[in-house]
Design a protein that fits this description.
Distance between the termini: 14 Å
Number of helices: 20
Number of domains: 3
Oligomer: single chain
CATH class of the largest domain: Alpha Beta
CATH superfamily of the largest domain: P-loop containing nucleotide triphosphate hydrolases
Strand content: 15-25%
Helix content: 25-40%
């Protein structure tokens, strides 16, 4: 059996200029990054601005497990299957982060015969977007500290600076640090820390901006801290919103690559769904919609995280409607939600599938809350038995959800043409009737409670004293009409990662609420969620190598 890396290297890629021409783009509308990667120019984005948009298909999943669900593989495979049944389709997904690539997760470019290529480039430095965001974020941090030591005209309280630094790494030792040591000339000593680049508010902003004008406006709105008089201080007040925007002018342009079957693919932006909105950029999704009849995109982690935020935040800022939702499930994951340990997943266990299927049930209920119909993709693995598969098929049909077994990993687009046809049939039968879960104008407490009770299944929510103070600050400064982007573990519907399946009778505890005024949402922090991951005991980096020819080994 070939590895993902071997399949990627054996795939015959078309020059990116040919891929661009297949969707109506000219060579002079591309900024080329070698033979197989390109960014669209602002000229191209302006030319297609007034074009009508195609139909959007959102791929989500049940609550993820260490067994893996293959959501990205399914997203890529579905786009290829759509083209195989004669529909013009583009896939638009997020960029991987190097930290998780070298850590526990590995790459995020799909797998098997359903990948975006060139896989190695995409999983590593790609077109430099992550580095641009890291540079812009840390230059902003440096400019803040410089302002403080150079007169501090805005009266910024050093201990009230909220703008931490970022790096695209998994490094627990950087979560909390001291800066400014070494004497008066080295700055003002204070506690600081690092987040991973994907958690940067600049990443969220890049993915929510419709154009460069909006990008600059959102950057100017960022609150970097508070003054001695406890008033918010913004990037615009520092007078550096233009400079930070300049550092991101190229990163804002969507990246164009291709799949293993030469389907056009936009891979752009990478906010995590457990700490941010978890979707690729609005600009790349809307660009794809203007260049194709159908677009497949995905929301990070389970439906309770990425998809909820996609409907309540991303779709609202992007002003587009989702025409179909595909929910990815696996027998392996359902067994884990049925209390089977990872090392026992290959053993047939229909009883565990039945026990764990309550997790799938909850996600199907959640999809309906947004006015959407469900189409379930059972991502098949070799050890799945016909009995186990039939249990899930029968369950989905009993709930009125369309369902198909797919194997995009092993067969590419041919592994799920029936699913593609069911998606098209669903889109043809139903008008786009997407609706948000809550009204942005509702009180912040009510918005949090709505998501926690209706989507997670919580009995109620609890606010710490810190969170209660944050609520008062949010109302005082007029940010209470922003949507909420709850930071929560991806491992459970609850805020406790140990509670699998469909937890009941639990509280969601909100520890604090961060105002992301630039991105345009509030971030209630729940449980023990952290914005800087750590490495596992045996990181993926230990299997990655390079040979004397410069060929990368072990990247997946």
């Amino acid at each position: 059996m070939l590895t993902d890396n071997e399949i990627a290297k054996r795939t015959k890629l078309k020059p990116i200029i040919e891929i661009a021409k297949s969707i109506g783009l000219d060579e002079d509308e591309l900024d080329l990054y070698g033979k197989y990667k390109a960014k669209l120019t602002y000229k191209a984005l302006e030319r297609i601005r007034s074009k009508p948009m195609g139909k959007l298909i959102l791929v989500s999943a049940i609550t993820p497990t260490p067994a893996g669900e293959g959501k990205t593989t399914t997203s890529i495979g579905l786009s290829m299957a759509m083209n195989k049944i004669g529909k013009k389709c583009i896939v638009a997904i997020r960029e991987p982060s190097i930290g998780p690539t070298l850590g526990v997760k590995g790459g995020a470019a799909g797998g098997g015969y359903s990948q975006v290529l060139p896989m190695e480039d995409i999983n590593l430095h790609f077109t430099g977007d992550m580095h641009a965001i890291t540079s812009a974020h840390n230059n902003l941090a440096a400019l803040i500290d410089n302002h403080i030591v150079s007169g501090n005209n805005l009266g910024i309280d050093p201990v009230a600076v909220t703008w931490r630094r970022v790096l695209d790494v998994n490094d627990r030792s950087l979560r909390n640090i001291l800066i400014g040591l070494g004497g008066k000339g080295q700055g003002i000593p204070r506690e600081e820390g690092f987040d991973i680049t994907s958690a940067s508010e600049l990443m969220a902003i890049l993915c929510l901006a419709n154009d460069i004008v909006e990008l600059k406006e959102k950057i100017g709105n960022i609150i970097i801290g508070y003054s001695f008089s406890k008033e918010p201080v913004t990037v615009r007040m520092l007078g550096i919103d233009g400079a930070i925007t300049v550092l991101l002018k190229d990163a804002l342009k969507p990246n164009l690559v291709q799949t293993t079957e030469n389907t056009p693919a936009f891979v752009h932006g990478g906010p995590f769904a457990n700490i941010a909105q978890g979707a690729n950029s609005i600009l790349s999704t809307k660009t794809a919609l203007k260049l194709s009849d159908y677009v497949v995109t995905e929301a990070g982690f389970g439906f309770d995280l990425g998809a909820e935020k996609f409907f309540d935040i991303v779709s609202q800022y992007g002003d587009f409607c989702t025409h179909a939702v595909v929910l990815v499930a696996t027998i392996r994951a359902l067994k884990m939600h049925g209390d089977v340990k990872k090392n026992k997943l290959a053993e047939p266990n229909p009883e565990a599938v039945i026990k764990g299927i309550v997790n799938l049930e909850k996600h199907l209920e959640n999809i309906a809350k947004f006015g959407m119909k469900s189409i379930v993709a059972i991502n098949r693995f070799s050890e799945d038995t016909e009995e186990e598969l039939q249990i899930v098929i029968d369950f989905c049909e009993s709930k009125g959800a369309a369902v198909e077994v797919v194997d995009y990993w092993g067969k590419g687009g041919d592994g799920g043409k029936l699913l593609a046809q069911k998606v098209v049939d669903s889109i043809d039968k139903h008008i786009c009737d997407q609706k948000p879960l809550y009204d942005w104008n509702h009180p912040v407490k009510d918005k949090i409670k709505t998501v926690a009770t209706k989507i997670y299944g919580a009995e109620n929510i609890d606010f710490t004293d810190k969170a209660k103070k944050d609520l008062k600050k949010i109302e005082k400064f007029g940010f209470d009409k922003l949507p909420i982007c709850i930071a929560k573990t991806q491992k459970s519907l609850s805020d406790n990662p140990a509670l699998l399946g469909r937890p009941k009778d639990f509280l969601v505890t909100v520890r604090e609420i961060i105002i992301a005024a630039g991105a345009g949402f509030l971030i209630p922090i729940t449980g023990d969620i952290m914005r800087m991951p750590g490495l596992p005991k045996k990181p993926n980096a230990e299997v990655i190598d390079i040979d004397y020819k410069g060929e990368i080994i072990g990247l997946m």
